[in-house]
TrEMBL record:
<feature type="transmembrane region" description="Helical">
    <location>
        <begin position="177"/>
        <end position="198"/>
    </location>
</feature>
<feature type="domain" description="Rhomboid protease N-terminal">
    <location>
        <begin position="1"/>
        <end position="65"/>
    </location>
</feature>
<keyword id="KW-1133">Transmembrane helix</keyword>
<feature type="transmembrane region" description="Helical">
    <location>
        <begin position="88"/>
        <end position="106"/>
    </location>
</feature>
<dbReference type="GO" id="GO:0016020">
    <property type="term" value="C:membrane"/>
</dbReference>
<keyword id="KW-0645">Protease</keyword>
<feature type="transmembrane region" description="Helical">
    <location>
        <begin position="236"/>
        <end position="257"/>
    </location>
</feature>
<dbReference type="Pfam" id="PF16733">
    <property type="entry name" value="NRho"/>
</dbReference>
<feature type="transmembrane region" description="Helical">
    <location>
        <begin position="204"/>
        <end position="224"/>
    </location>
</feature>
<keyword id="KW-1003">Cell membrane</keyword>
<keyword id="KW-0472">Membrane</keyword>
<dbReference type="GO" id="GO:0004252">
    <property type="term" value="F:serine-type endopeptidase activity"/>
</dbReference>
<feature type="transmembrane region" description="Helical">
    <location>
        <begin position="263"/>
        <end position="282"/>
    </location>
</feature>
<dbReference type="InterPro" id="IPR035952">
    <property type="entry name" value="Rhomboid-like_sf"/>
</dbReference>
<keyword id="KW-0997">Cell inner membrane</keyword>
<protein>
    <submittedName>
        <fullName>Rhomboid protease GlpG</fullName>
        <ecNumber>3.4.21.105</ecNumber>
    </submittedName>
</protein>
<dbReference type="InterPro" id="IPR038244">
    <property type="entry name" value="NRho_sf"/>
</dbReference>
Amino acid sequence: MSAVAVLRLPLNVDLSGFVKLLQRMQVPHRVSEEKGEQVLWVPAHISEDVRSLYDRFPAGDPDQQMDIPAAQAAKRPGFIEQLRHAKATALVLILSLIVGAVTLLGENLETMRWLTFLDFRIVGEYIHFVPLADSLAAGQWWRLVTPMLIHFGILHLAMNGMWYWELGRRIESRQGSINLIGLTLLFAVASNYAQFVFSGPTLFGGLSGVLYGLLGHCWIFQVLAPNPAYRLPRGVLVMMLVWLLVCLSGLVSMIGFGEIANAAHVSGLLVGCLTGLLGGLYNRRKLAV
């Protein structure tokens, strides 16, 4: 089902009330920012109805029923429809699934060594790591990023994938696919390098450092430039921050869940807060112009 731009409005126009009305009516939609405007996208077959509704209720009206056939209004966007509006988010998750399959979720070391932060050789029962400088000199710059695609176990992959889908879609709908990919790569490099500095030559991987970056970005961006796309339920934010503190305490490792990449989590969160600060201030300044 194709989507069309039904409204193009200045950034200083408050769309939050109208968006809440669409959400209440369960109308598929998304809001993006393009060339200094906020653009409302809806399925083509209901675009005229949505435009007419906005003409009558630009600020939204929680008691107003929409003049769209009930079957269409109540229809939630299907998974395929969601994928069309979250292509970059889906791409990262698909790559993670592929890497999980070819590395047997961390069991196939010979394949995994091409994606780890440090290359390594297995000699007998020992792992010998290759210095990072040697790998970079050989042109293997992908190693700064690809550990985010490595996961150790199905639960590790499922949990990280679920949170990336939730947070990635928010950023992609608000700032676009290119910005999401850029932020993902930035958080991956920052969290991977921090973990390497903290733990030294070792095997680590997963999207969790990136996830905390996305969390920090949404959190601070929303504080400075409120937008429905970045409005995280308070319980989610508190839960992830509490989980970070629990991991830092060492309790998770003590009870047998393995080593936790705490340096990746903390660095990802800090860099994410920084990008959220810069993005939020920039967006706030544009709204004030």
